[in-house]
Amino acid sequence: MPSVRPPQPKTYNGDLADLPIALAPLCPMANWVTWRWQPNERGYTKPPFCTVDPTRHATSNDPNTWGAHSTAVNAVRAGKADGVGFVLTGTDIAAIDLDKCRDSETAALAPWARKILDMARNAYCEVTVSGTGLRIIGIATGPEVHRAFNLDGGGRIEIFRRATRYITVSGLELSDCTELPNIDRLIDDLVAQYDDVSTRKTDGQQGESGNRGDDGDDIDDLIKHGAPEGQRSEAFARCVWSLAGQGLSQQEIEQELNRYPDGIAAKYGKRLSREIARCYEKWQRENNSGATAAASVPSSPHSWDDPDISILDDRRGELPAFPLDVLSPSWQQWSTTAAHGAGCAVDYVMVPLFAASSSLIGTARRVQASKSWSEPFTCWTAIVGASGAGKTPGLDVVKRALAEIEHERQTKNAELRRQHETNAARAKAKFKAWKEAVEAANKKGQATPPMPSDADVPDDFISPRLYVGDATIQKLAMLLLARPSGLLLIGDELASLFLNMTRYASGGSDKEFWIESWNGKPYPVDAAIVDSAFVDRHHRRFPAR
Fold first, then answer.
1. Model-level pTM?
2. Could you tell me which residues come within 8 angstroms of residue 259 by beta carbon, excluding any fewer than 6 positions away?
3. Lowest mean pLDDT among 223-227, 349-353, 354-358, 456-460
4. Rounded alpha-carbon distances, angstroms, from residue 209 to 43, 44, 100, 217
5. Greatest extent of the chain over all pairs of C-alpha atoms, in Å
């Protein structure tokens, strides 16, 4: 009769997008993975998965399967993963796991765990995603340590320094830590304290509790070092299940286990292949993998026909913060307040502001790079970010400021219009009088009088504009006549600029005009802002900015 699988454990996560300040140095690193609960023979485990494609397994020794923190968080928000994890491999980040030491309902701690917390007063500590453990995270530069100690009563301590390993991250901080401290001494003290013949210790082997350790990644140690008598059968099955979940075929699993003669496969001898096949087939049934007999053929888990989803991942991490310190205190306060009011990053306000300022300066000033090279204050900017990141609200802040300036100029523009109409009427009268004089002179056979300079009738009045959102080249030329110092072109979408290049039904095109302008010939406008939902091959928070 098949065993009844226990219900999936509850997940304990904090705000994964806004982790505690002590973990801020980890966020820009491309060492993040996702994880989700998966059943095994003893309960549930938490294997790592890729950030971009959470259906693909990640491994602690392959950076190509890791990604950005923001991408991992997005996968959790989309329901594709249960949480995020950080790969310790190649970093100076160390961790100490205290498993089965906390009551998830009452938050009561085991005395042995309380003593360790007292030893680590200044370190970062959080509740693990199972709610039943604690994790201490800090900086460590000492030699590699990857040890696990099973305690009486079911508790367990795991220590990782310079380890090829990933840890889950919940963000449920118990400490009051603002910066990760060095925990080398704490690690060495714990190893010395528990490395005693009276303590049941293992090198990464599973304790006697029902589930695996809180980060579910003790497989490497089992493969390399094996398990004690009485635990070897279950440990062997877990190793096979884990390797199969990473996409290895049966033959590849056998090759991996044979690499370690003193490991989990040491005592199986000639029946190793048969035992692997038995566990592999059970893994297929339990996980409904749909794998066929071809899976036993040594091959890559992916083929050339598979799309490479990783090109959409963001390997850059978080972009550096906007350098507010270069601004005056008043501008720092304004930009921060404006961004907060718009619900967006400061970048989305300040980048459009640069272009707007450029257009207001216009041709009044030029930057001279050398005696023969000078450029006007022409600034083309583009806001790049995912949909909903706040690009348009940030752009609207600048547009509202420009609209306010134009509103204040209405009285002046009205006066300019009156002057223009007065001059036009006067010129028309002069022109009419001159025309009559010419006719009279012709009738009398006299010399034609020259046209007076004030008889030249001006074109229609064009109100000066600070910015325009959508205009043809002809319209821009007319507007620049009214404001020759410069004009700001704002496109709410990148497509609005490019589609405008071929907008004429007659088959005409503006492409040559814009391309030539970008190649160094005179710009049609003094500045331009483009707000785009374009996502490049690695996004970031996008936000890529």
1. 0.46
2. none
3. 223-227
4. 10, 12, 8, 15
5. 133
